[in-house]
Design the sequence.
């Protein structure tokens, strides 16, 4: 199995779903970094949509590890997790969740239709997309779709790899993949194809400035990026942006 398209990646995640949480637990800082990106949404004040309870999107939720990070950052929030992998979602649904958490199977590009089926047309208070955008062919379209789903002023955090701008980051990533990730994939899951794809997809993904420009082109404002800590500094980043606040009319009513 040599995944190169989104459908193949989904199949790959189905294969590794049963032991995925064990696999990522080998990565120092994995859970801490997801929580850091969730907290960088900075939803400490009133919800941008005006609801009392935050409604958040976890796009590419996988087994629910990013969902758990959102709930740790924002206790009591309503979280909708969306993923295309049936196997990963089965693992997510098997966990214990508070009321207000639900999971929906859909391709990332079809998230608007999937949320509409759940009675959510727009007005999200925030969204997190962890390790997802790199795997989507139409990245610009996806970002524009998520921007449109957000309430005016609401933020998006994209938790993603980007090593294109740094020779050191590319070298570190390659060494870690070939020396740790791929061998661990064989030991833990007897599967390496998805992790070999992971190495290639990260090396081929946008640089930081390129992805920030992509977010701006999708309609997001206040776009910036923040680094992770530890060995993934310079490798994984939180890319932040928000939907513009609605511009008030120039003319008074009446």
Sequence:
């Amino acid at each position: 199995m040599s995944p190169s398209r989104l459908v193949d990646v989904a199949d790959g995640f189905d294969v590794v779903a049963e032991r995925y949480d064990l696999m990522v637990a080998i990565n120092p800082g994995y859970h801490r970094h997801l929580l850091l990106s969730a907290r960088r949404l900075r939803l400490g004040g009133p919800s941008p949509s005006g609801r009392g309870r935050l409604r958040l999107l976890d796009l590419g939720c996988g087994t629910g590890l990013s969902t758990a990070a959102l709930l740790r950052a924002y206790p009591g929030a309503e979280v909708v997790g969306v993923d295309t992998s049936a196997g990963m979602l089965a693992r997510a649904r098997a966990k214990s969740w508070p009321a207000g958490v639900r999971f929906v199977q859909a391709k990332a590009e079809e998230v608007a239709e999937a949320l509409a089926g759940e009675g959510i047309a727009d007005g999200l208070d925030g969204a997190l997309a962890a390790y997802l955008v790199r795997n989507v062919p139409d990245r610009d379209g996806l970002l524009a779709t998520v921007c449109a789903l957000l309430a005016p002023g609401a933020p998006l955090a994209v938790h993603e790899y980007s090593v294109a701008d740094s020779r050191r980051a590319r070298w570190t990533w390659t060494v870690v993949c070939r020396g740790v990730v791929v061998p661990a994939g064989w030991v833990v899951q007897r599967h390496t194809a998805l992790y070999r794809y992971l190495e290639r997809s990260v090396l081929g993904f946008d640089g930081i400035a390129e992805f920030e420009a992509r977010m701006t082109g999708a309609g997001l404002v206040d776009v910036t990026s923040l680094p992770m800590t530890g060995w993934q500094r310079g490798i994984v980043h939180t890319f932040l942006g928000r939907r513009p606040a609605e511009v008030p009319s120039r003319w008074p009513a009446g």
User: Anything to note?
Assistant: The first strand starts at residue 55 and ends at 59.
